[in-house]
Amino acid sequence: MIKITILGAAGRMGQALIRCSRQTATLRVVGAVDADQCPLLGKDAGVVAGIADIGVLLSADPRKAAHAADVLIDFSFPSATVLHARLAAELKKAMVIGTTGLNEKDSEGVRKASKKIPIVWSPNMSLGVNLLFAMVEQTARRLAAYDVEIVEIHHQHKKDAPSGTALRLAEATASARGLTLNAAVIHGRQGMVGERPAGQIGIHSLRAGDVVGDHTVIFATNGERLELTHRAGSRDCFALGALRAAEWVMGRKPGLYSMQHVLEINS
Q1: Less crowded by CB within 10 Å, the N or C end of the chain?
Q2: Which of the residues are catalytic?
Q3: pTM attached to this predicted model
Q4: Is pLDDT of 100 > 90?
């Protein structure tokens, strides 16, 4: 039995992780942590997630919760994630990170922690999306002259834009074509922008309603268009992927891993 602590347990993904953990015989939730201003602190984490009492109270003490676990799963927020990674490295606990929106400084903190512990870090934990990453990289390489546009839509509460998944799709495209992400990407268009330059990668972010997450990568040239789309109907696909990553990362050597490693998907 692998013991897990969920960081960001009161959030939408945290609740999904708690619910889905009941489907996995090899995992047991032993800790649930959220911010110290969370009004649900002290309540049973299972009740917060909408299921039966699991005997784990929602806490604001990540250190105590981490001590009890084998693996930490983080879906909190960027400034907290880097602190959790530092704590995991100190306590020698494996980690799974699904938090998006980290800046370069925070990202470097995660990379530094991965020198001491194994960390699976991915902007999207679903099996389908990670297969999409590989498909987009292959397609971008083979359709090297095609224009590429990425469209993503998420619920109205999502704080970062573009999504981490959209950025990863852009990275896969740029890498396949020998381009740098910053030089190739444009975020939306407005005004008299002129003709579309060759090699440009457009990213467009939509925010509306309760959309869990849709991503479409469009490859277009004169006379044809290929669209690769993934639509998430619930957060369970992300939660189940993160739980699978928690099983996989246990006992690994220190290093930074992705869901491509977990799922043995070769680009």
Answers
A1: N
A2: 154, 158
A3: 0.82
A4: no
